[in-house]
Amino acid sequence: MSKPPTDRADKQRIAQGLESTVREARVLATKLGLDPYPVNYWVVDYDEMNSLVAYNGFQDRYPHWRWGMKYDQQQKQRQFLGGKAYELVNNDNPAHAFLQESNALADQKAVITHVEAHADFFAKNQWFGLFSDNPDAARMLASHAEIIESYMDDPEIDREEVEAWIDNVLCMEDCIDQYQPFSTAEGWPNETPTDEDIDEKLGDLGLSEEVIGQVFDDEWLDEQRKDEDVTSFPAEPKRDIISFLRKHGMRYDDDSEKAVEFEDWQREIMELLRREAYYFAPQKMTKVLNEGWAAYWESIMMGEEGFADENEFIHYADHQSKVLGSPGFNPYKLGKELWEYIENVTNRRNVVEHLLRTEGITWRNFHDTVDLDRVMKHLEPDSVVDRVDSDTLAALDPEDPRIDNEGLAAAKAGEIDADRFPWKVLTYEGLVERHYSLAKPQNRGFLKQITQTDVERIARYMFDDARYATVEEALDHVDYCAGWDRMREVRESHNDVTFLDEFLTQEFVNEHSYFTYEYMETTKDYRVTSTDVEDVKKKLMLQFSNFGKPTIVVEDGNYNNRNELLLSHQYNGVMLDVEQAQQVLKRVFKLWGRPVNLKTIVKELDENDIEVARRRDSEPTPEERGNLLRYDGEDLTATELPWNEVEHLAATDVDYDTKPEEWLA
């Protein structure tokens, strides 16, 4: 039995063996219209891969117990549940991807093609650009790790105190404004200045106490510190709670039992962790989009273009089926299906538009006049691009825009194996036609699914409706690039929320058998409740809005004019886990130094209402009430609030019965 590779020399040997695979994958990805960041590939062993997964894809992170916990979880998952880390790539320029040395060659190829698509997404999606157009994340995170470790090693600072401070900040790591470009947490314009703000500004002037006393008397200072008209701030609710706490918070000192200024290291750690939260935010915001995008192009390259050769294909098919068929919510599957749907819908619309520009065809007679079977036959790829091999090379026309002249010459000279890599002989136009979605066996019925209403909607905005004399002439002008071009447009501008909101349709829900289910209070079990697209969409949207977590904002930094912090839960029909919320308030107290409050809405059901609903074969409607949680450093309290104090937080258009498990994770 051969010994598995473990040392550096074996890793280098594996890496060298994959060099041509990496090079060919990049060429193919580029030919398919992708434009990825450069990617550095690293071969790692089992333990290194587990560490990288725990570190979110990076080699250096700040010291903290959370990484060890994640490492242990990853190791046990793989040991007892058979989980396997196929891909690991980070958003960087160049990107860094990691290949586990023990994986089969088919797995390595699948990871490489998948990674190339991820690197394209990182480079082109605008949400990643909100953090930086040219990220150097590996260096940034390594620098953060070095700074935090230096504080832990400082004999003047208690290491446990640093770890506890990190814990306090991390409880708010998703409380940022991910929809705004990243900026340092320094200025908060148009807010009422605090005593600390004024003292800091005076200190910056470098004036003596005597001068300050002469020029800025107590009456003037009081005027600046206490504006009777504006006693609360910020003017509008702030999503970036970490930034607000860093600017206006104070640490609670257990010895003096009062709020005191942050230490410099505490303020710096808050900003470092906030910066990291912003860096990772786009990946959380685009999980379905990004994984679906990568799964789509991986499938094109590995399966349809034969990047997996004959003796690897079965292994790859098994790999792909496990990824797309994993139970529970699967972003790979949903994302890939939605990308394919966008491609099909775009191509279908393009075909219908051309047909409606044919003399004698209108939206009213479309289905009676057009032979869609004949249309599908005409749309099948030309044999010139559909069948490229060594036997057809001589018949290829170098002047054909679908033919790559350099690739053709190389293939004729025996430098390229056209039987193995036909894509090397084709241009982008040739590959688009070769992979035209409506002509694929699994999509052959898609054109026929278009309804009279859809045709009317397309025709409503069309002009020049007699451009073509025949159906054949119209179809000869169909744009085979339409689907892929549209996909790249969507890839640039959307996140998961906007992606689902715009492209999840009733047709998609029906085709893929999506439905909603709810927990029934009357029967104490789960039941399927709807297959309507709006219900399905609401269910899914709850998992993606604000990373699937409750949205908490700063409502007032001077609540009741007592320097208390008021946070508000922007309620969407899903209640907070009150016990967890109370624990978070305890940690936020450490960052504010004074009492912390949280407004939310709770739902209550009366047993009598449940019994009445059971007899009527319906579900009871819960009563919603305002609730104020408060922690003052010693006691946790919960107080009912009048509805007018929480009405602005109430949901308006959500599924009130939905409670995704991820919400409480």
From TrEMBL:
Transmembrane spans: none
Chain ranges of the SpoVR-like C-terminal domain: 550-601
Source organism superkingdom: Archaea
Residue stretches making up the SpoVR protein-like N-terminal domain: 17-350, 481-547
Name the record gives this protein: SpoVR family protein
Organism: Halocatena marina
InterPro entries: Spore_V_R (IPR007390), SpoVR-like_C (IPR057008), SpoVR_N (IPR056174)
